[in-house]
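Lay summary

Proteins are chains of building blocks that fold into shapes. Our project writes down both the chain and a compact code for its shape. Here are two examples, one after the other.
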Amino acid sequence: MERRTLTVNEAADYLGVCNDTIYTMVRTEEIPHFRIRRRIFFSKETIDIWVREQEMNHQVI
């Protein structure tokens, strides 16, 4: 069974950016995420949809 959530490190690897970029995007609410206590997680499906939306809007990620 494939995990459907990503940690900050995994999201950074998946998107090809550094961890600091992910933390900045979380802080400025640029990227969809959720927290369990203090830990930050991302839904892989939601990230895929978000990336497609960014591509369609020609926005710089």
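And here is the second example, written the same way.
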Amino acid sequence: MNQSVIKALQLLEYFKEYPELTLAEIAELDNMPKPTAYRLISSLEASGFLVKTKHTNHDVKYHLGLKLLELGSYVADQLDYRRVALPHMKELSEQLNEAVHLAVLDGEEAIYVEKIESKKHIRLYSKVGGRTPLYTGSGPKLLFAYLNPEVIEEILERIDLKKVTENTITDKKVLAKELEKIRLQGYSQSKAEFYPDTAGFSFPIMNHHGQVIAALVVSIPIIKFDEDTEKFIIEKMRETSEKISRDLGYRE
């Protein structure tokens, strides 16, 4: 790589620690002659990577330009969340020895876009491409809960809560409280709401904008549901969802 390009990129690194720097400060930090520093800074300024701030006639400082934000957003948008999530999902499935899914919002339904089967002989009903109403199951409810409040209200007004199992929520007031609870605790649970023999847990996957773009879902046979299992699954799922979100650029 051209040495001037390398030097210019190194200069940008200093702005992570110092929001604004003068020409003299940059030259001193990098131990380079002022004319060299000025040439590099001028090139970065012309390209939009640095912006000049003139406080006084003798106090010119530079700060990072919006071009970096533009490029950063482009890179983040190019990340394939399924590709990023998959190795973490495999690790989680091995830790729990349970099926792990990734679900996303599609209109007023959740669609499962990825699944890691458990190694047990018991196979659950869910499959990639399967769709579920937003009001039933841990993953769909989580995606529902993290929608804009106005959108939630609109959907609740028109949605028809059809009973799928004995545990399906069919009361809109109860559903609204459930969605609020999910947002407050940061995850979702379900017991035999869509599939009669299955319990589910779900955590949000965030992108670099802090938006929920997917639900990480673990499904287990309901006969295995007990307090110790619940605590262990929630702990491991929280760790995994945070790892995936970080890899997608999310920062708290």
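What can we say about the second shape? The chain has a mean pLDDT of 88.
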